[in-house]
Amino acid sequence: MTDHQLSTTSPEKSRADVVVVGVVQTDDGPRVAPGGEAVVAAYGEKRFAALVSSFEVTGKPGTATRLPTETLKAGTLLLVGLGPADALDPESVRRGAGVAARHLGNVTSVALALPAEDADHVRAVVEGFELGGYRYRRFKSDDPAGGSGSALSSVTVLSPIARKKEAATAQAVGRVVAAAVARTRDWVNCPPGDLTPPVFAEEARDAAPSGRGSRVEVTVLDDDQLREGGYGGLITVGKGSAAGPRLVEIAYTPKKPVAHLALVGKGITFDSGGLSIKPAGSMATMKSDMGGAAAVIAATYAIAELGLPVQVTAFAPMAENMVSGAATRPGDVYTTLSGRTVEVLNTDAEGRLVLADGLTRAVAAAPDLIVDVATLTGACVVALGNRVTGVMGDPGVVDRVLDASGRSGEQMWPLPIPEEMTEKVRGNSKIADLAQHNTERWGGALYAAAFLREFAEDVPWGHLDIAGPSFNDGSAWGHVTPGGTGAAAATLIALAEDLAERGVDGVTED
């Protein structure tokens, strides 16, 4: 069990195994970031400058340099790059703390002397360090740390405001947010055969905050109930699998809520493409196709744990898109929960089908706004790359989501929903109300968003396409580790924090 502390102790006096100090880039070369000045003083400026030069420390983001020291009480000094000094902000600190977590070595205690002069920076240090050291160990037979992958017994954030209430609050909130992102990563990283829709639904239920005062209720509908209830989207996607679909509904109802937020998350636990089958190489990461549902569930529980005065109703439609004699065929028509009919033109565009039913349920909950999260389109990855989420929807909601993402440190960018896409959604099918898939190659992310908007009706709505950033199949960077990233969970929590502070003013404005 790791002990987490805040302290005003000066870093040169810390007895931790490792002291972490930030380095920033300036026109005059690298220099120590705020929080590490006492380390420079302990060495002496000239001696420290020579040491930095001899080890070729640059301050470039992502870099880390371990230095043995007899000058400090700690045995090792770890210098991490935070980037340009004039761009130093909580996000660069968050990423630097993540890098530090992966370069500690085999130690039991660490003191983080990174910029932490206010509550936002304290929270960034906590979140970054917790997430940068994340490891998924469930299936490692030789895990000596019992699942955590860490031998740390003590983590101390050094801050001049350590004794103030806002610092303790920031640390506590940062740990809740980091835990929610880590939970999202755990679910995304789980092998798809071990996280079928029935299993995922039960894990979601089991993870709910419990005890008196939790104010969280979880309801799970099985495939028979979905069929009887008219959930055509979920049934048509999930009927090719031996593991039937599920719908998880989570209701968090605080006392005197100032806003009602509905969340909908795509929960395709594995996507083979169905009869429009994917190439084999494209299936390797398709266990991550439930990243939206994982983020929505984890964020809802975190919002409840934080006790935010925002009512949250979350819907996670879960299905496995598989190939069998019972699978949906291209050309089939089904009736959605809303009563509108949809022609399926490509069974590999299944996410929007399950989200349609989820959005209809969300509308029925009469929220102030709806946000859906989905690993929806490869087209969004082509447009924005694999680290940026596309945000579409009503301008007021999009603006609030983008503001929340800026504070959470997640990269997001607005995309339009042109009117011609709506015309195609409504006109491309000659036999049904709507066409699920665009017959043209271009603008796939925009078409998918236009399709979803049909089911949001008149409720202010935003759509997050996390197809790119939900899974990192490369090396770690910043506080993002390989595998599931937990994309969107932190932003959803930040959005709820914003609603708690400012209410819903502006979400319906153009």
Description:
The protein has 15 helices and 21 strands. It is of the alpha/beta class. Helix 13 (419-427) packs across helix 14. 55% of the residues are buried.
**What is the residue-averaged pLDDT?**
96
Instruction: State the helicity in percent bands.
Output: 25-40%
Secondary structure tally: strands: 21
Structural category is alpha/beta
Number of helical segments?
A: 15
Morphology call: elongated
- Unreliable residue runs: none
C-alpha Rg (nearest Å): 24 Å
Estimated share of beta-strand residues: 15-25%
Biggest sheet: strands, sense, closure? 9 strands, mixed
Q: State the separation between the terminal residues, measured CA to CA.
A: 49 Å
A few lines on this structure:
The chain is an alpha/beta fold and 510 residues long. It is 35% helix and 21% strand.
Keywords:
nine-stranded mixed β-sheet, single chain, elongated
SSE layout and pairing:
Blueprint lengths: L2 E5 L10 E8 L5 E2 L4 H7 L1 H10 L9 E5 L7 E9 L5 H12 L7 E5 L5 H14 L21 E5 L6 H25 L7 H10 L9 E6 L1 H7 L2 H7 L7 E7 L6 E7 L1 E5 L19 H16 L3 E12 L11 E3 L5 E3 L7 H14 L4 E6 L3 H7 L4 E5 L1 H14 L3 E3 L4 H9 L6 E2 L8 H13 L4 E5 L5 E2 L10 E2 L4 H14 L8
Parallel strand pairs: 1-7, 2-5, 2-6, 6-7, 10-12, 10-15, 11-12, 14-18, 15-19, 16-17
Antiparallel strand pairs: 2-3, 4-5, 8-9, 9-12, 13-14, 16-19, 20-21
